[in-house]
Amino acid sequence: MAKKPPTKAKANVTEPTVDYLSLQEATEVLVKHLGYHVGLYALSVEFKIAIGQVGPSPNELLPGTMVGVSRIGLLKADKLGPHVVDASEVNPSPPKYRI
Q1: Is residue 86 helix, strand or coil?
Q2: How far apart (Å, rounded) are the C-alpha atoms in residues 85 and 77?
Q3: How far is residue 1's CA from residue 80's CA, in Å, rounded to a whole number?
Q4: pLDDT tens for residues 3-60?
Q5: Does the pTM exceed 0.90?
Q6: Which helix (H) or strand (E) holds 89?
Q7: Within 10 A of 39 (CB to CB), how many other CB atoms are there?
């Protein structure tokens, strides 16, 4: 008798399937990804906002707002703060070797 392939369990939407990053951790990841070695940076999140009629059915429409994250990036910061990352600490320049 042939074995049945295992079935995939349905994901529970109330539990995260990956680890979350704090604002500071996300900023550190972007600093490293973009190759910044000097400067202070804070996370920037850009939102798109739309207004319109929303509801569960055409008979139950109400004025509403929809908000979506359109992109994330880094802003240069002037001073250290709770969510500001120093690139020289989290992504130091590689040592230069002389031959």
Answers
A1: strand
A2: 9
A3: 66
A4: 666 555 565 567 767 788 999 999 999 999 999 999 999 999 999 999 999 999 999 9
A5: no
A6: helix 87-90
A7: 13
Q: 41 with 90: CB under 8 angstroms?
A: no
Q: Show the tokens assigned to 76.
A: 């240069």
Q: What is the full DSSP assignment across 6-75?
A: PPPPPP-TTS-SS----HHHHHHHHHHHHT--SSEEEEEEEEEEEEEEE-SSGGG-EEEEEEEEEEEEEE
> pLDDT of 51-96, one tens digit each?
999 999 999 999 999 999 999 999 999 999 989 999 999 999 988 8
AA identity, residue 45: V
**What does the alpha-carbon distance between residue 31 and residue 75 come to, in Å, rounded to a whole number?**
11
